[in-house]
């Protein structure tokens, strides 16, 4: 049996097995949430109304069912691009038009992104304007959505194409260790993005204004000083123009760090509860979770580039995924290698997804414990309950689904630990 056939078989088996596991997990989630829809869990019966509990159940079920359809479509597209020869046809078509070289390779990357985006567009529109709107979360107009889409597309092209061109050039000019140089470029780009995003990119999509509530500002400033945290500013973002979901986050890196509150969050929580939520976010910095995740990202991306550097030289990697590699010296395979690697890695990586999810839940518990030590545990509990209710997060997720997917622990587990603390 040839290496190409072995790889094709492994890819197909992993794809089918992953799809079956995803359908099984989603089905478990739907059945479990539906089974507990009729009554609020005992731990929440005095704080969450039956109507809110049932809305969360219906929202969770609707998202899960929509996800099943989207999952089936994404799998069909993946098969179409790979084993059924879609990427091979697109590559050959562009080769006949443009010949080999950098222009053809960039055109291949751009065409793949545009076609893929258009094929996924109906699901994006349905999720935003039907699913989210049905449950009262979407606040975005079609005009605003279109403006955001055009901005993000233009920004992606302006940033992505030069980076892609640099990596493609390194693949062709830097020798056998090109992947090490490409990894360094990619990591530098990510770090630079963390620095410039708060100041130059985020304001293209949202409006930010300084926090002007003197009471809240005083509490937040005192909390950050007490925790030894410095930020460039406290800002309120107009999240309500796009969604009713509430959130708060830190953005930036080093001296450019900012604290950002959604305006929806400030409307839903009182000052003490906002302080408790911020203390939770500070807990991530205190426990160096952000640094640990950056280090993990650096290590995983280095391993990924090294693997790409090897498989890009193997003919079976291309033919095993339905693509005939370019044989002419004037028509390199570098863009093909990037696209095929991007398509194949998630298929095999799906099975280790529970590991980072488990680590993330551990970090959330640690951040909760820090927040309880710095502020009122009752305030944090109250804030979390309001956020779970306002975001229609189910209180009764399937335990197996949680272990596989959830990056944050369910409400029942978080509140139980806070109560014990």
Automatic annotation (TrEMBL):
The keyword Iron does not apply. Gene3D superfamilies: Metalloproteases ('zincins'), catalytic domain. Zn(2+) binds at residues 280, 284, 364. The chain crosses the membrane at residues 6-25, 68-87, 107-129, 150-172, 178-200, 294-316, 336-355. Residues 211-419 form the Peptidase M48 domain. Binds 1 zinc ion per subunit. It is a multi-pass membrane protein. Its cofactor is Zn(2+). It is found in: Endoplasmic reticulum membrane. The active site is at 281, 368 (proton donor). GO terms for molecular function: metal ion binding; metalloendopeptidase activity. Residues 29-207 form the CAAX prenyl protease 1 N-terminal domain. It comes from the Bacteria. GO terms for biological process: CAAX-box protein processing. Keywords: Endoplasmic reticulum, Hydrolase, Membrane, Metal-binding, Metalloprotease, Protease, Transmembrane, Transmembrane helix, Zinc. Its main location: endoplasmic reticulum. InterPro entries: CAXX_Prtase_1, Peptidase_M48, Peptidase_M48_N. PANTHER family: CAAX PRENYL PROTEASE 1. Belongs to the peptidase M48 family. This is M48 family peptidase.
